[in-house]
Protein: Malto-oligosyltrehalose trehalohydrolase
Amino acid sequence: MSLPERFEVWAPFAHDVRLLAEGAEYQMESDASRSGWWVADAAAPAPHDGQRYAYRLFDGTDWSKPLPDPRSRAQPEGIHGPSEVVSADFEWTDGAWGGAELRGQVIYELHVGTFSEAGTFAGVVDKLDYLLSLGVSAIELMPVQPFAGTRNWGYDGVDWYAVQESYGGPRGLKALIDAAHARGIAVILDVVYNHFGPDGNYNGAFGPYTTAGSTGWGDVVNISGPASDEVRAYILGAVEQWLGEFHADGLRLDAVHAYDDRRAYSIMEDIQALADSVAASTGVPRTIIAESDLNDPRVISPASVGGYGLTAQWLDDVHHCLHTLISGEHHAYYMDYGTVEVLADTLRHGYRFRNTYSQFRRRTHGRALDLSITPPWRLITYTTTHDQTGNRAAGDRPSHNLTAAQQVLKAAVVLCSPFTPMLFMGEEFGARTPFPFFCSHTDDELNRLTREGRLREFSRLGWDPEDVLDPSSPETFEAARLDWTFDASQDEIFEAYQALIGLRAHYGLARTDLRELKVENSDTWLTMGDDAVVLAANFSDTPVDVPVGGTLVYSFTDPAVSADSTRLGPWEFAVIER
Structure:
């Protein structure tokens, strides 16, 4: 069994520490060789699989209540209960899995709790063959670290080494990854290292895990201040656990722009270096993806030119372009988008802002990518995500507001682009269930504050308060469960996604050089492609004639394609061999 020889905990704030295990309390001793660390004395039992334990801390005046371990591997009784010792042992069957480089992948983002009726890792396993039939090659799980209750997006996690028990716990996650690998599907975990959730975060009683300031979601994680070496080691230990012991193929780093990352070596560089080390030792590639709205090339540029060297980053810009063009919404950050010209410019350059002015930010933003060293597959694009759907007052999806043709038009641009595409669960069949924000904090006051905070935010952005759903209501969560019964229209949308994903693979659209992409446009139409194959798209409600022709390969509708031109109806597209 792979277990530590004794209990130990980093608690530099404590004057004294006691271990609670097997119905008794045991004194812990300060470790003279490691500042701030405490180790169990000789009288304490050794850790064994399934053992429950907790710590009590003395602050110089009072003893705390029993607290879970900041490095807890499991919380079977929830985030406020004792921790559990979990062995690393698991009967893996993925020895033949060689992994998958990011280039050429189609990613599928999903929320474990609402993806299936069961709301568990096992429920995801039951849908893997469906995802394989769609053409998906990687799934990205929204965060699975423990949170309060059983209803949460996952970004309120507090125990960064553990797995939500209601989903199936650590063994359930391993079983999902093993089953995915058996079908040739990679698994990427979404992890949050910019803040701790507000409910059940006891780490501040142990040591300086956070520092002054706020991310808007919680206190700033201490990765640059005094004692930050141990906090960074805490993060890197979790990264190594997921990529090594759990066989995860990659991590998506939530909101890296919220990192207080002021040291000469970024925590992102350290994470990428660790991923490279695991890949070298296992022979299986590991992918590190950043969520960043900075339009900053350093995130994905190689270290040789001063970058952090991450594999890829989410790119909201293409989404924003498509959303504004087709929905007509221009509020908040969408005000910087809304024309075919802006979409064409973004497709040519990757970033919308390249040291240029942003109306929304009221300042100059971004920096141009060096396209000679940045292949476009390092940019991940999408028609929607959990954020772009869930951060709407009613959690309404594009399918609630767009026609089937408009939905598939957006998918065609993303799936025919040279960027790495990502789908959000249910979009591939035009799901009609919403995906609003939901939570189940154990503290009524936290639920009230969350509800009022979202009301204020949506009101500021111009939403009707009547449309804002109560995130703590069980009905809000239940409404988000996918309905897997399709009607004829949804079947057609699904078949369109299948066809577009198949064409992407057939024509090798995951190009290595964005400069090779040819993009032409007018005020209403756009073409994108190369000398072999091109996408022609009409972003208007009137027919247009596009000066590109050839042989029609695929369309969701029935465009008129001739040898030298194409007539597209409203919101119509055509994939054409020149």
